[in-house]
Design brief:
alpha+beta, 4-stranded antiparallel beta sheet, about 20% strand, 2 helices, single chain, about 15% helix, 3-stranded mixed beta sheet, about 190 residues
Length: about 190
């Protein structure tokens, strides 16, 4: 029995090592740091699963909600949407471990909106070939640590080489810093 327990522990350790190495590997994106040492979300020791799959609905729906930081964009489940300062117009630089912590809002059809400017709502093709929803040229993401509708735990978080912000209906990032921000994004 003791031998089986030891074997199970060794196998579990090997699996965790392989999983950690895969999550930290350079996937060839051009958005990484020069040293290749991006560490992800500060103070977040949680393991995260794969990025969210494309919406099963006919098209992703983006709408506007009024919250702590004023009016901002949310998805069809009222989860807060974010933009990444490191992205360029219509181009996502968040891949690999970044996309696991900050799942991109993906869709296979033209997105729809409620309370948004439809001419600002489009998609762009990611490096993996998937379509990501954009607003005013900003690729849109959710934050893994937002657990329920209305959470804004990702506001002004500095992770994966740049800051993350909510976006307003005019297509501008909301740069207000959380009042409980301790310098580590929370």
């Amino acid at each position: 029995m003791r031998c089986r327990t030891r074997t199970a522990v060794v196998l579990a350790s090997a699996l965790l090592t392989v999983t950690a190495a895969a999550g930290c590997s350079d996937n060839g994106s051009t958005g990484g740091s020069a040293s290749g040492t991006d560490t992800g979300v500060q103070n977040s020791g949680r393991l995260v699963d794969a990025p969210a799959a494309p919406s099963k609905s006919p098209a992703a729906t983006v709408s506007v909600k009024d919250g702590t930081y004023g009016k901002s964009l949310v998805d069809d489940k009222d989860r807060t949407l974010y933009v990444f300062d490191k992205d360029t117009k219509n181009e996502s630089t968040c891949t690999g471990a970044c996309a696991k912590a900050w799942p991109p809002l993906l869709d296979t059809k033209a997105p729809t909106g409620s309370g948004v400017k439809s001419k600002l709502l489009k998609t762009t093709t990611r490096s993996d070939g998937k379509k990501q929803v954009t607003y005013n040229g900003h690729p849109l993401y959710r934050f893994d640590e937002d657990q329920k509708a209305g959470d804004t735990n990702g506001q002004a978080v500095d992770a994966f080489g740049a800051k993350w912000y909510l976006i307003n209906p005019k297509g501008k990032k909301i740069t207000t810093t959380p009042t409980n921000n301790t310098g580590n994004g929370y």
